[in-house]
Amino acid sequence: MHPSPLDPSPEPALARVRLVVNGTGHDLSVQPMRRLLDVLRIDLGLTGSKEGCGEGECGACTVLVDGNPVNACLIPVVQCDGATIVTIEGLAEHGGMRAIQKAFIRCGGAQCGICTPGMVVTASWLVDSHVGKKLPEVAIREHLAGNLCRCTGYGQIVDAVVQALDEETIAAGGAR
Amino acid sequence: MTPTAPLVIRPANLADALAQLHSAATDSPLRPMAGCTDVLVDLHFGKPAAPAYLDLWALRSELGGLRWTDAGLEIGALCTYADAVSNPRFRAELPMLTQASTLVGATQIQFRGTYAGNIENGSPAADAAPALMALDARLRLLSQSGAREVALSDYYTGYRQTQRRADEIIGSVVVPGHRLDCQGQWMRKVGTRAFQAITKVGLCGVFGWQQGRLHDVRVVAVSMAAVLKRCPAVETYLCGKRADEVDAAALRAAQAVDLRPIDDVRSTADYRAEVFARLVEQAVRETAA
Questions:
Q1: Which of B148, B215, B240, B132 is nearest to B180 (CA)?
Q2: B57 touches chain A (CB under 8 A)
Q3: B38-59: per-residue pLDDT in tens?
Q4: Is residue A105 part of a domain?
Q5: Which H helix or E strand runs over A64?
Q6: Mean of the pLDDT values across residues A159-170?
Q7: Do residues B123 and B156 make contact, with C-beta atoms less than 8 angstroms apart?
Q8: What pLDDT is stored for residue A2 in this prediction?
Q9: Which segments of chain B have a pLDDT < 50?
Q10: A38-87 pLDDT, tens per residue?
Q11: In a domain, A165, yes or no
């Protein structure tokens, strides 16, 4: 991770920001333009979200803010005041992996692992927002276009999304 | 060296935002910020921060959303691409703007990027702004002294320079009624790959046909000049022509009146000129069919 010139600054013009991250509330006094990614990794110790490019291209820093996948490297923390955030660390429910996480393992959707946290977060949103709906492969690839992987060639990742969506749809009582 | 942390002003509502802009306008103007997909890239890669920002993101209930009115479609300044393309009527009536809104960036960017932000950022390689320009969009600029409207095609005064006064923000973007569901909306972005690319050469346009002849033409050039640019000479040349009457040399001569392409890190002027002419030819061919 290359250091951000925004972090840290010697002259604090601090803002009070409340975040709920993976179910835990945090009242922070922070420089308002610090990147959400730096606050998560440095202040809260949640180093699962990675920094790849720092400019919103690679998606390694993807987290859910109020349910939507966004690049944590492109959000000033002040804009998250009152937001609910889920990072890769908070994705598993009740201590157990979700269908999308198991499908990534089963399909070989991870190799070096740098893109994986962001990729899994985006994929989890994709599955959750399409339970019971058709999701053609071209749409899966388009929705994952903001998560770059240099190892897998994407085939296994697409397979994992297809399998997890099938499982979640069946679990929700819908037809495949 | 670590720069000084900029001040961020968080207005309580739109009226407060306009009051803050008004009082700061003369000595130290505030820089409005919305989804920050451009602002944070600039800061991270070392561009100097503005002394103070006005954070509009929390005002989405006042400045967001889509409203169909007698005048057309009013797109709130803070409407995100995801907000817009999730609306079936928007997709049906504005296929070119829908396409531009998905090509602007991946899913993550679509949840943060706003139409006003794309316009105000002022990049000549923008995606949504040229589509809006081709659709005759107008901007509603708000300040404490009231609202005024400016045609988007008149908005840019130079590279990343706009007509916005320091006490104003873009309140909304209006696509006029005659452009909703209009025929011949066409765009193509030429970049280094299909997604996540910055435009080398692009065209957004309207190519309306009547009895086999072009009669309603808008051509906007993307990444061809210091600003996004309407091409009146090309439009005039094409108007009234049948598809088989469009002459390659005459088209390029008209284009040379409108555009003197830039030579930069993404492409050469010669490449841009030739590809742009071919985009016009492709648009004519495809919309005529």
A1: B132
A2: yes
A3: 999 999 999 999 999 999 999 9
A4: yes
A5: strand A62-65
A6: 97
A7: no
A8: 42
A9: 1-2
A10: 999 999 999 999 999 999 999 999 999 999 999 999 999 999 999 999 99
A11: yes
User: Do B17 and B11 form a contact (C-beta atoms < 8 A)?
Assistant: yes
Q: Closest Cα of chain B to A122: distance in Å?
A: 8
pLDDT given for residue B4 in this prediction: 60
Q: Containing domain of residue A54, as a range?
A: 15-89
Residues of B in contact with A33 (CB under 8 A): 5-6, 8, 40, 43, 49, 53
Q: Which ipTM was obtained for this model?
A: 0.92
Question: Best mutation site among A2, A6, A17, A121 for testing chain B: the one with the most B CBs within 10 Å?
Answer: A6
> Confidence band (pLDDT; 50, 70, 90) for A11?
low
Residue A5 lies inside a defined structural domain of this protein: no
Domains of chain B: 7-48+63-179 (3.30.465.10), 185-288 (3.30.390.50)
Q: What is the pLDDT of residue B1?
A: 36
Distances (CA, A) of B151 to B165, B167, B231, B258: 15, 19, 15, 19
Q: Is the domain of A84 the same as that of A106? A: no
pLDDT at B253: 97
C-beta atoms of A76 and B45 within 8 A: no
Task: Give the total number of structural domains in chain A.
Answer: 2
Within a domain: A10? no
Q: What is the pLDDT of residue B264?
A: 84
| Under 8 Å between Cβ of A62 and B105 | no
The type of residue at B223 is S
Q: Any idea what the CATH number is for the domain that residue A164 is in?
A: 1.10.150.120
* Residue A10: per-residue pLDDT: 47
Q: What is the pLDDT, as a whole number, of residue A12? A: 53
- Which amino acid is residue B37, in one-letter code? T
Whether B19 contacts chain A with CB within 8 A: no
Q: What is the dihedral of CA B6, B7, B8, B13, to 10 degrees?
A: -150
pLDDT in the model for residue A85? 98
